[in-house]
Write a structure and sequence with these properties.
The complex is a heterodimer. Chain A is mainly β. Chain A has two domains: 51 residues, no CATH class; 76 residues, no CATH class. Chain A contains one helix and eight strands. In chain A, strand 5 and strand 6 form a beta hairpin. The radius of gyration of chain A is 16 Å and the shape is globular. By secondary structure, chain B is of the alpha/beta class. Chain B has one domain: 3-Layer(aba) Sandwich (Peroxisomal Thiolase, Chain A, domain 1). A nine-stranded mixed β-sheet of chain B has the order 3-2-4-7-1-8-11-10-9, with helices on both faces. Chain B has a two-stranded antiparallel sheet with strand order 5-6. In chain B, strand 10 and strand 11 form a beta hairpin. In chain B, helix 1 packs across helix 3 and helix 7 packs across helix 10. The longest helix of chain B is centred in the middle third of the chain and has 16 residues. Classes of the chains: A mainly beta, B alpha/beta. Chains A and B meet through strand 4, strand 5 and strand 6 of A and helix 5, helix 6 and strand 5 of B.
Chain lengths: 132, 390
């Protein structure tokens, strides 16, 4: 069933709107590909399947954005980081429900999902991370 | 053993950098072109220049695309073929490499290469948005990660892994601002103190306002020839003897390492190999200090020191004017300014001056070998070139 869903970023965000962290796995060489791509970047196969990721990981690095783009100015300063998930896969994201002074490289975080969808292009839902 | 030149620089030009009210980037480019023409009286630009390659990052700034022929028209070299190369902040570094291909292929004997950007008429929010387009949209921009934010992510990781300090980063700004005071074309020609950097407004922790390069208007150009005819146009050509370029994932999060730029390492290795030189042979370098941490990463990626030792290198004064390896004598992106599309060939302009002993108050005595390091985005593109005196 899920093989019929194209291995695109739009599909990734469709899953996010359903509160699921999904990505592509190559049926030929077993590489997990995040973000999902239509072709395996290891063996170039297009024989892929969707897998669900657990959504927990550790914080690799972070920053606190003070000077923000217009659409984020209302929530600045805010924390963003790169989170290492299972099998070395990584995602960048906002980190919420955490004070700046409590952020530590290596800390455990888990994914969560916003309820609403953006009204502007690209009309996606957002995922974010929070302490375990 | 130094290898034979790929191309020769027979002239170069640079518009003054800074806030240039009421002027288009094509007019800035005419400024740079005029200087290059004046420096090479034996060159008949309309007749001799066979093609133009220009770096230009964004059509949003002036609502103007198709920059190749636009700039060619203002530089007086129509109807010669003119091509814009876009590689974010490495646009004119990539244009330089493309111009080298044009000569090395035998297709052209004399070409002009340059870059231009007009930025200061836009608000900081607009510039922030345009620059962010060089980062990954669906995961980085979408999550509110700004351009300074990406370098801040690298800085935090570098501090954590190697013990690099905010003070060491601030020292890069202090050094480059000092060098900027010696460059009459620099955007910012005033000294700053370590305290001023440290107490400036936080942009993306740990990066503060004075850790960031400037929003600047400017243009730069070089005139390149095949090495065999260089002396027809000048007695003091500068030869490009190594060129390297590499790419990496558009998203920082997808890269193997976040404490170094792999593309810059690979580009450097290729350029050194082509030149037949080692990092210790370099007398003067212009590196891509879009943020202070970026200069520290450049020291390491170019093997001026070991991984993790970049903070110590600045602390020990090695890269100051008068040090063993002066870096960014022009003031760098930090003080000279960073009109993004113009930066790559502006770095080459400085090396041209240095290797022809025309850098006046900031001259590195006896410089024979120079290097430029031009990075696009958060490191998805890097171009490294190595130069030698005639």
């Amino acid at each position: 069933m899920s093989e019929d869903i194209p291995f695109t970023i739009a599909s990734f965000y469709q899953f996010v709107s359903e509160k699921r962290l999904m990505t592509a796995k190559c049926n030929e060489c077993g590489t997990e590909i995040l973000p999902p791509k239509p072709m395996c970047t290891n063996c170039l196969s297009t024989n892929l399947r969707w897998i669900e990721l657990e959504g927990t990981g550790k914080l690799l690095t972070y920053t606190v954005i003070h000077v923000a783009p217009e659409q984020f100015q209302a929530i600045a300063p805010y924390i963003v980081g790169i989170i290492e998930l299972q099998n070395g896969l990584r995602l960048p994201g906002m980190i919420r429900d955490l004070k700046q002074e409590d952020v530590k490289i290596g800390m455990s975080l888990k994914i969560d999902f916003e309820a609403s969808t953006s009204s502007q292009w690209p009309a996606w839902s957002r995922y974010f991370f929070k302490p375990v | 053993m130094v290898n034979k030149p790929l191309v020769s620089i027979v002239s170069a030009g640079l518009s003054p950098f800074g806030r240039r009210e009421g002027i288009y980037c094509r007019e800035l480019f005419a400024d740079a072109a005029k200087e290059a023409y004046t420096r090479a009286p034996n060159l008949n630009p309309t007749k001799d220049i066979e093609a133009l390659f220009v770096g230009h990052m964004g059509e949003s700034y002036e609502h103007q695309g198709h920059t190749g022929p636009t700039l060619a028209g203002w530089a007086g070299i129509l109807p010669k073929p003119a091509i814009r190369i876009e590689s974010a902040c490495a646009s004119s570094g990539a244009a330089l490499r493309t111009a080298i291909f044009a000569i090395a292929s035998g297709m052209h004997k004399v070409v002009m290469v340059g870059g231009a950007e007009k930025m200061t008429h836009r608000t900081t929010a607009e510039v922030t948005e345009y620059l962010a387009m060089a980062s990954d949209m669906p995961f980085e921009q979408w999550n509110g990660i700004t351009f300074p934010g990406l370098y801040a992510l690298m800085a935090t990781a570098h501090m954590h892994e190697y013990g690099t300090t905010e003070e060491q980063m601030a020292q890069v700004a202090v050094k480059n601002h000092h060098n900027g005071t010696l460059n009459p074309k620099a955007h910012m020609q005033k000294e700053i103190t370590l305290e001023k950097v440290m107490s400036s407004k936080v942009v993306a922790w740990p990066l503060k306002l004075y850790d960031c390069s400037l929003i600047t208007d400017g243009a730069s150009c070089l005139i390149l020839t095949s090495p065999d005819i260089a002396h027809k146009f000048t007695d003091t050509p500068v030869h490009i003897i190594g060129s390297g370029q590499a790419s990496d994932a558009i998203g920082l999060y997808e890269r193997e390492q976040i404490t170094s730029l792999k593309a810059a390492k690979l580009a450097g290795q290729d350029a050194y190999r082509m030149a037949g030189l080692k990092p210790e042979d370099v007398d003067v370098a212009e590196v891509h200090d879009c943020f202070t941490i970026a200069e520290i990463l450049a020291y390491e990626d170019l093997c001026f020191c070991d991984s993790g030792k970049g903070g110590k290198l600045i602390e020990n004064g090695v890269t100051e004017l008068g040090g063993k390896l002066p870096v960014n004598p022009s003031g760098g992106l930090k003080a000279k300014g960073h009109p993004v599309g113009a930066t790559g060939t502006a770095q080459a302009y400085e090396i041209y001056l240095q290797l022809t002993a025309q850098a006046e108050k900031r001259q590195v005595d006896g410089a024979e070998i120079g290097l430029t390091h031009n990075v696009g985005g958060s490191g998805a593109t890097a171009c490294v070139h190595i130069y030698r005196r005639d």
